[in-house]
Design brief:
- The protein is an alpha+beta fold.
- The chain has one domain: 3-Layer(aba) Sandwich (Trna Endonuclease, Chain: A, domain 1), CATH 3.40.1350.
- The chain has four helices and eight strands, in the order αββαββββαβαβ.
- It has a four-stranded mixed beta sheet with strand order 1-5-6-8, sandwiched between helices. Strands 2-7 form a two-stranded antiparallel sheet.
- The radius of gyration is 15 Å and the shape is globular.
- The two termini are 22 Å apart.
Length: 123
């Protein structure tokens, strides 16, 4: 993970703990510009967010030689978001809003201005 991505991940986790305070699934993305390609969200990530929100997602956390918080988790119909970090702010975009925007957009990317319009929350 690049240092700037690691810094945003740490910042976002602190923000969630202080401001969100409910169960949800998040996929974090970051861009240095005022837009991010829809292709930044990979198909397996989209599917996982969809299952967490609409069905049932279970996942075994891999044992990687360090102490895990626990072995596995289950998410059943929880909120699910693509979190986009633009240069100055980040936006939580519901997975359904993300896919709808991707499918109807004339662009191949999501601009920050459009993210402001469709986001659930921002920080």
């Amino acid at each position: 993970m690049q240092k700037r991505e690691a810094a945003f991940n740490t910042y976002f986790l602190k923000w969630v703990k202080a401001n969100f305070q409910k169960t949800a699934a998040f996929e974090l993305k970051q861009t240095k510009t005022d837009s991010i390609p829809f292709s930044a969200l990979k198909l397996h990530q989209e599917k996982a967010l969809f299952y967490a929100k609409h069905e049932h997602l279970t996942w075994k956390i891999p044992d990687c030689g360090f102490q895990n918080v626990f072995d596995c988790f289950s998410l059943y119909r929880v909120p699910a978001y693509v979190v986009i970090k633009y240069p100055e702010k980040f936006y939580l975009i519901d997975i359904d809003s993300w896919t709808a925007e991707r499918d109807i957009s004339m662009r191949k990317s999501l601009t920050e201005d459009r993210a402001k319009e469709i986001c659930y929350a921002c920080g």
